[in-house]
Amino acid sequence: xxxxxxxxxxxxxxxLSTEEYKLEYTAxxxxxxxxxxxxxxxxxxxxxxxxxxxxxxxxxxxSDAAEESSESIFAQILIAVTDFDVFMTMMREAAAANSERLxxxxxxx
Length: 109
Prior knowledge:
CATH topology: Adp-ribosylation factor-like protein 2-binding protein fold
CATH architecture: Up-down Bundle
Number of domains: 1
CATH class: Mainly Alpha
Order of helices and strands: HHHHH
Helix content: over 70%
Number of strands: 0
Distance between the termini: 30 Å
Radius of gyration: 18 Å
Low-confidence stretches: none
Strand content: under 5%
Number of helices: 5
CATH superfamily: ADP-ribosylation factor-like 2-binding protein, domain
C-alpha cells in the first residue's frame, strides 16, 4: 500500500519526545497530500471515467442534500485524509510502532 509505505518511511522525522510540531512535518504533510491527490485523481479519471471537478461537484451535491448520507460521510473522510492533525496522529503512531519494533529487535541481538 502506497500510503502505509509512505507513512512508515517518513515517520522517522517524528520526534516522539515532544508534542510540538516541527516545520519539517509540514513538508512531509504536503508530500502526503500530493500522493493522496495523485491517487484519488487517478481513480476518478481511470476507474470512474469522470473529471475530478465533476466528482467533487456530485459529491458536494449529495452531501448537501443529506448530511447523514453515506456520501456525506465519505466526503468527511476525504477531508479528514488531508487534515494535518489526522496526518500527524498517523505519523506519531507509525513512529512509535517503528521505535518499539527497533527496540524489540535490538533486545533479541
